[in-house]
């Protein structure tokens, strides 16, 4: 049967301030997230994710009353003596703009953020366990840290909002093309995040040479070649590159914070410097070993994998590198939550969305994410030119992802 072609996404984004507090409930948010992937009944949800069935069923009814989900099927209850079981599907996504988000009390915003992060992590975990996360050689996975002024912060937020709002259009266009051909349907999850991170702007700016975009780098001096990529699949080297991009770091400081053998960690620092990912920023006398010299390193560039070098890697190596990138990003999220900076900005961005697209739309989404990633150094440069004081800038973590999810029914299929 040919897929249903939707001419437009019905009421896709935005919620009223009146509904904001109701939708910020963690259970309702989780229901919206899961029902956006495939139809579910309250009992199916409770079996998979927990919760009191009476309360979960009430949440489903409330979401239907608010117009975010609808009954797609009625069937006999699976339990003995059970009445009719209602199966729901999503018809709208709940996207909190800054105005409506501000109307939600801070404590409830924190709970809602944690639930959105948890459901997103579950999507990643499921894709990794099913072997789909790295199946596409041009899947997108990146995170970076930049110092932005308020104007650049808003520009970044606008870019993320535009990408989020464009996803239904990509899906509709893909469905239209797929209805006329036998092209491949790609179940996809797109994740977008930008939030205030805990470090001081001055520390962040000192931690790396920050003015080069990874997408502008070419040849051996740029994207990670296959040999270097294999070396970076080592968990310690990956961790060193990630941490040194945030602030200056010595091998001994790294060992104190994250562990590892001092001899091995020092060698990793030297190798990364030889390969051009780190440079010595400062040499301090009085290091721990006999009063020797302690070398402080900073990052010189982000480890960026172009499609060619990424595809050349064995799947096992790709999987390991993805794991370390994901671990370091979610460590950033945890640090920001614990430091109470994650939701400090009302207009921080946190969203993930499932879509089903064709190969053309998949490439277009990837290009859009590449564009956002490539714009970060320029946003930071302009921020520095405008800022009178560095400490007024916002230390910002940006996370972007687009990956194939396990084949399950999504809203575009029902």
SSE inventory with pairings:
Layout: H1 17-23, H2 26-35, H3 42-49, H4 53-66, E1 69-76, E2 84-90, H5 98-102, H6 106-130, E3 140-148, H7 150-179, E4 186-196, H8 201-206, H9 226-232, H10 235-244, H11 251-258, H12 262-274, E5 278-285, E6 293-299, H13 307-312, H14 315-338, E7 349-357, H15 359-386, E8 394-404
Antiparallel strand pairs: 1-2, 3-8, 4-7, 4-8, 5-6
Helix pairs in contact: 2-4, 2-6, 3-4, 7-15, 10-12, 10-14, 11-12
Written overview of the protein:
This protein has 414 residues and is α+β, with helices and mostly antiparallel strands. The protein is built from 15 helices and 8 strands. α10 (235-244) packs across α12. It is globular, with a radius of gyration of 23 Å. It starts with 16 loop residues before the first helix and ends in a 10-residue tail after the last strand.
Spatially, the strands of the biggest sheet line up as 3-8-4-7
User: Terminal Cα separation, in Å?
Assistant: 12 Å
Overall structural class, as computed from helix and strand content, comes to alpha+beta
How many strand segments?
8
- Element-by-element helix/strand order: HHHHEEHHEHEHHHHHEEHHEHE
Q: What is the rounded Rg? A: 23 Å
Q: CATH superfamily name of the domain at 202-324? A: Winged helix-like DNA-binding domain superfamily/Winged helix DNA-binding domain
- Beta-strand content: 15-25%
Arithmetic mean pLDDT:
80
CATH fold-type name of the domain at 202-324? Arc Repressor Mutant, subunit A
Question: Which stretches of 5+ consecutive residues score pLDDT under 50?
Answer: 1-15, 213-223, 409-414
State the CATH architecture of the domain at 202-324.
Answer: Orthogonal Bundle
How many strands, what sense, and barrel or not for the largest sheet? 4 strands, antiparallel
User: What coarse outline follows from CA principal-axis ratios?
Assistant: globular
Total number of helices: 15
Q: What's the CATH class of the domain at 202-324, please?
A: Mainly Alpha
The percent of residues in helical segments reads 40-55%
């Amino acid at each position: 049967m040919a897929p249903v072609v939707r001419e437009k996404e019905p009421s896709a984004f935005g919620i009223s301030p009146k509904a904001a507090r109701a939708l910020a409930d963690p259970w309702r948010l989780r229901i919206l997230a899961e029902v956006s992937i495939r139809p579910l009944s309250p009992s199916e949800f409770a079996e998979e994710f927990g919760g009191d069935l009476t309360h979960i069923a009430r949440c489903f009814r409330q979401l239907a009353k608010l117009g975010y989900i609808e009954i797609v099927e009625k069937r006999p209850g699976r339990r003995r003596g059970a009445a009719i079981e209602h199966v729901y599907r999503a018809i709208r996504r709940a996207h909190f703009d800054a105005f409506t988000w501000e109307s939600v009390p801070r404590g409830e915003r924190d709970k809602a953020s944690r639930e959105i992060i948890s459901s997103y992590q579950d999507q990643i975990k499921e894709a990794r366990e099913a072997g789909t996360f790295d199946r596409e050689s041009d899947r997108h996975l990146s995170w970076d840290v930049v110092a932005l002024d308020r104007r650049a912060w808003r520009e970044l937020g606008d870019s993320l909002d535009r990408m989020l709002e464009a996803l239904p259009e990509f899906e509709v266009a893909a469905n239209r093309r797929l209805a006329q051909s036998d092209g491949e349907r790609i179940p996809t999850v797109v994740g977008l995040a930008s939030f205030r991170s805990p470090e001081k702007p001055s520390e962040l700016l000192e931690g790396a040479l920050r003015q080069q975009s990874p997408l502008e780098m070419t040849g051996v001096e740029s994207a990670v070649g296959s040999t270097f990529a294999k070396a970076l699949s080592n968990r310690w080297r990956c961790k060193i590159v990630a941490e040194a991009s945030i602030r200056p770091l010595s091998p001994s400081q790294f060992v104190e914070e994250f562990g590892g053998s001092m001899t091995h960690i020092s060698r990793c620092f030297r190798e990364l410097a030889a390969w051009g990912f780190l440079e010595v920023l400062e040499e301090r006398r009085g290091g721990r070993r006999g009063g020797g010299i302690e070398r402080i390193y900073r990052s010189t560039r982000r480890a960026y994998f172009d499609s060619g070098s990424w595809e050349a890697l064995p799947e096992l190596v790709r999987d390991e590198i993805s794991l370390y990138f994901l671990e370091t990003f979610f460590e950033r999220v945890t640090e920001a939550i614990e430091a109470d900076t994650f939701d400090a900005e009302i207009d921080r961005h946190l969203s993930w969305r499932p879509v089903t697209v064709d190969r053309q739309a998949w490439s277009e989404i990837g290009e859009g994410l590449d564009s956002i990633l490539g714009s970060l150094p320029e946003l930071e440069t302009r921020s520095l030119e405008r800022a009178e004081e560095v400490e007024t800038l916002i230390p910002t973590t940006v996370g972007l992802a687009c990956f194939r999810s396990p084949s399950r029914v999504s809203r575009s299929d029902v």
